[in-house]
Design brief:
Helices cover 8% and strands 42% of the residues.
């Protein structure tokens, strides 16, 4: 499928492919003494790679499937705002039977007006929609060249009605784990938006836009708010600390919104009947905290650097050295076996908490080739770990998405030169 949206990932993959192939083939016919470490270079073959043989391609025509808030319903989108919805069943994606509706709206951001058409579906009294804006659609918008919006029902604590969440980071287009930097109250019937939070003292970034750490929400944060009306903000920290340090605040138009939790580590936050769960830095490392009635209790301590020594996916925290996986909500631990993930960058955990996918971004090997790594394992030892070390394993601007407890989906090149990409599924 040839569309503008694929350029975001395909361009990265194409560059990686060119570098990788060049590195492999440049060493192919050289004399033994000119080869790095005295080892023979290996010619990479996309078609015959172990990972190519292991996965099934569901985005054969370039479809990149992203999750909606409805179980087993996914969507695709391009930079021209062409949006389609699909249902996943029995290992296959099929066009959704739900009617797709549209509503036009205008976002107010940094004193500009951004027009967006939202494509949405409704099911069981809930609504989900997405819309894309680029400057190709309206060149009168000068500050923002791109916007992605998500339409949802308001979480319980926000009251009745709808929210429109906006992300302006184009590199996150195919990420299922966006940090939305604007929160709008949305009138679905008329398409009118209004902002919740005062921008009176909001700073401007180097591009002339409002700083994107003033009001923030993630899908996980929204899903775990309970009955609260919170958002998180890094306004009192440096712009570089967005997503690493934040305060949890009460959503209001107050000049200074009330802070309910100060200086959490990362973006993980759960509010339930027991209180507020979050991480905080300590002298020796960091702690899993429980906040109740403005008091804090340490549930467990962790040594080391959160960002260097650990990986996290939702409630699961994994120590890269000891391989201990901790359920932050219950305190239960599992120790993974027979893997080495010290140099890995991200983890994705299956819904049942038993399967783990670890991914390491591309690095240049001793032959000069750019190689990525994947490790897939179980916590209960029911299957032996599987590892891959190859070029073109996954698109680093996308995420790993579990379709169920045995099938994990990601984005990968679908041809050897990296010019086309699509969703693939690994079954473990």
């Amino acid at each position: 499928m040839k569309d503008k949206a694929l350029k975001i990932i395909a361009a990265v993959l194409a560059v990686t492919t060119v570098v990788t192939f060049a590195a492999f083939f440049l060493t192919k016919d050289k004399s033994p003494e000119s080869k790095p470490s005295g080892k023979d270079a290996v010619v990479y073959s996309y078609e015959n790679s172990e990972y190519t043989k292991a996965v099934s391609v569901k985005g054969t025509n370039g479809e990149i499937f992203l999750p909606t808030d409805f179980e087993n319903i996914y969507f695709t989108a391009d930079l021209g705002n062409k949006v389609s919805f699909y249902e996943y069943a029995n290992g296959a994606f099929a066009a959704s039977s739900l009617p797709v509706k549209q509503v036009s709206t205008k976002l107010s951001a940094t004193y500009e007006t951004i027009p967006v058409t939202v494509n949405y579906i409704e099911k069981d009294g809930k609504t989900f929609g997405v819309g894309v804006f680029t400057s190709d659609m309206d060149d009168s918008v000068k500050v923002y060249s791109y916007a992605f919006v998500k339409l949802i029902n308001k979480p319980v604590g926000y009251g009745a009605g709808y929210l429109l969440l906006a992300d302006f980071e184009k590199e996150n287009f195919y990420s299922a784990d966006k940090i939305y930097s604007e929160i709008y109250n949305f009138d679905l019937s008329g398409g009118k938006t209004s902002t919740y939070v005062s921008n009176n003292t909001r700073l401007i970034d180097k591009n002339g836009a409002f700083r994107n750490d003033w009001t923030m929400l993630t899908d996980d944060f929204v899903a775990n708010l309970g009955g609260a009306k919170y958002f998180f903000s890094s306004r009192y920290y440096t712009a570089a600390e967005r997503g690493t340090r934040a305060d949890v605040m009460v959503l209001s138009n107050a000049y200074r919104p009330e802070i309910v939790v100060e200086d959490i580590l990362g973006t993980w936050f759960v509010n339930d009947a027991n209180g507020m769960h979050y991480l905080k830095k300590t002298d020796k490392g960091f702690a899993n905290m429980l906040g109740q009635n403005k008091a804090e209790k340490v549930l467990s301590d962790f040594d080391g650097d959160y960002f260097a020594d650990y990986l996290q996916d939702g409630k699961w925290l994994i120590n890269k050295k000891s391989l201990v996986a901790t359920d932050l909500m219950t305190g239960a631990t599992k120790t993974l076996k027979d893997i080495d993930i010290k140099a890995f960058d991200t983890v994705s955990v299956s819904p049942d908490g038993n399967k783990f996918v670890f991914a390491a971004k591309g690095i240049r090997n001793e032959n000069g080739a750019v190689v990525q790594q994947l490790v897939i394992c179980t916590a209960d030892g029911s299957a032996a770990p599987v590892s891959y070390s190859e070029p073109l394993l996954f698109a680093e601007s996308s995420d790993f998405i579990w379709l169920d407890n045995g099938n994990v989906m990601s984005v990968r090149a679908t041809v050897a030169d990296g010019s086309k990409s699509g969703s693939i599924i690994y079954t473990y």
